[in-house]
Amino acid sequence: DAGITQSPRHKVTETGTPVTLRCHQTENHRYMYWYRQDPGHGLRLIHYSYGVKDTDKGEVSDGYSVSRSKTEDFLLTLESATSSQTSVYFCAISDHGQSGELFFGEGSRLTVL
Amino acid sequence: KNQVEQSPQSLIILEGKNCTLQCNYTVSPFSNLRWYKQDTGRGPVSLTIMTFSENTKSNGRYTATLDADTKQSSLHITASQLSDSASYICVVSAAGGSYIPTFGRGTSLIVHP
Hints:
The structure holds two protein chains of two kinds. Chain A is mainly beta. Chain A is built from no helices and eleven strands. Chain A has strands at about 5, 10-15, 20-25, 30-40, 40-50, 55, 65-70, 75-80, 85-95, 105, 110. Helix content of chain B is about 0%, strand content about 60%. Chain B has strands spanning about 5, 10-15, 20-25, 30-40, 45-50, 55-60, 60-65, 70-75, 85-95, 100-105, 105-110. In chain B, strands 2, 4, 5, 9, 10 and 11 form a six-stranded mixed sheet that branches. A five-stranded antiparallel sheet of chain B has the order 1-3-8-7-6, with no helix packed on it. The mean pLDDT of chain B is about 95. The chains are: A mainly beta, B mainly beta.
């Protein structure tokens, strides 16, 4: 299994609080992605990174920010969580963004009350 | 706009039976197509990859086909087992420097004993 660790795996928080999810990889892959998965929508891209300090928005980036200060870590931050951000969040990595296989973490389930 | 459509949305079959899942895409220019399996509560895992020149590829009881002319792919599962119960996601990558693959919403397969 690819070395990807997401933390926390489960979190319950209240509306308006900040939340940070962490993705840590030991594969030295260049590309890292954050997805959210909701019933009826499948996996939707929030943000992605193609190198240290190189990030870009995905299709559902509003309300989220990311940072990648080193190859192995990709952080997803919800500055002020809302109930619509209740979801399961998946981190993925790839060694070739264009055609490489995506390796996913185990997911982080976030509930915003 | 690149799109991937999967059908059916959900499927229930009896153990031992065969089934076929469909994927239609409009991603252009085409690079490759992957089928992922996602068990409940886990991240997706790649089953197979199809490139432009490949018509069929097998991975155990899973056989994927690709018709690049009609932009269709199928995933055939032979002699289904209870462990095949999962969501199957079709993911298509474009050529030409895009880091972002296009995801289908998945087919939820339930295998009953």
